[in-house]
Design goal:
Layout (H helix, E strand, L loop, with lengths): L23 E3 L5 E6 L1 H4 L5 E7 L8 E3 L4 E7 L3 E5 L5 E5 L4 E4 L5 E4 L6 E7 L8 E3 L9
Antiparallel strand pairs: 1-2, 2-3, 3-10, 4-11, 5-8, 5-10, 6-7, 6-9
InterPro entries: Cupin_2, RmlC-like_jellyroll, RmlC_Cupin_sf, UCP037087
Pfam family, one: Cupin_2
Protein name: Cupin type-2 domain-containing protein
Length: 144
C-alpha cells in the first residue's frame, strides 16, 4: 500500500530535472555566478549549486552570508586568498583541488592576485539564486 502522505499533488515534482547552463551575473559581493540548481531553476527548496568565478586581479567586497553555509571546490585558476574572521584576521591560500567551507555568518573576502581567472563549483543551503549577502564595507580596507 502506498503512503499517501509521501505522494505529492503533482507526480511530475518527483522527476529529475536537467539544467542546461545559464547566463552569468555579478553577485552583490563582486564574484561572477552561473546558477545551475536553484529555487528559480528547478524549484529547489534547500540547495543552490553553480559555478562561481573570480576574475584575475579582482577581489570580492567584505561580506558574510548570514543565513547559510557555503561549500566550494576550486576547479581552475592558480591560487586565491580567502581572508576570514571577525576582523578578517586569517588568510588561507586556496589552489585547484582544494575544498573550502564558509560557515554562516563568517565575514570573508576572496582575492585573486594571479593572472588567471579562478573558478569554483559551489553549493549552499540557500536555494535562492540571489542569496542573502550582507556587505561589510567597514572591513574592506583591512585586506590589502
Amino acid at each position: 500500500m502506498k503512503n499517501e502522505a509521501m505522494q505529492p499533488n503533482n507526480a511530475h515534482a518527483l522527476t529529475a530535472k536537467i539544467v542546461r547552463g545559464s547566463d552569468s551575473y555579478i553577485a552583490e559581493q563582486g564574484s561572477v555566478y552561473r546558477t545551475g540548481v536553484s529555487a528559480e531553476s528547478v524549484g529547489s527548496s534547500m540547495l543552490w549549486l553553480g559555478v562561481i568565478s573570480l576574475p584575475a586581479g579582482r577581489r570580492t567586497s567584505a561580506h558574510r552570508h548570514q543565513g547559510h553555509e557555503t561549500a566550494l571546490l576550486m576547479t581552475a585558476g592558480k591560487e586565491i586568498e580567502i581572508w576570514s574572521g571577525a576582523e578578517l584576521e586569517q588568510c588561507e591560500k586556496v589552489v585547484p583541488g582544494d575544498y573550502l567551507f564558509i560557515p554562516a555568518g563568517v565575514p570573508h573576502v576572496a582575492v585573486n592576485r594571479s593572472t588567471e581567472n579562478a573558478e569554483f563549483l559551489g553549493a549552499r543551503n540557500d536555494p535562492a539564486a540571489n542569496e542573502s549577502v550582507v556587505l561589510m564595507p567597514e572591513l574592506d580596507d583591512i585586506v590589502p
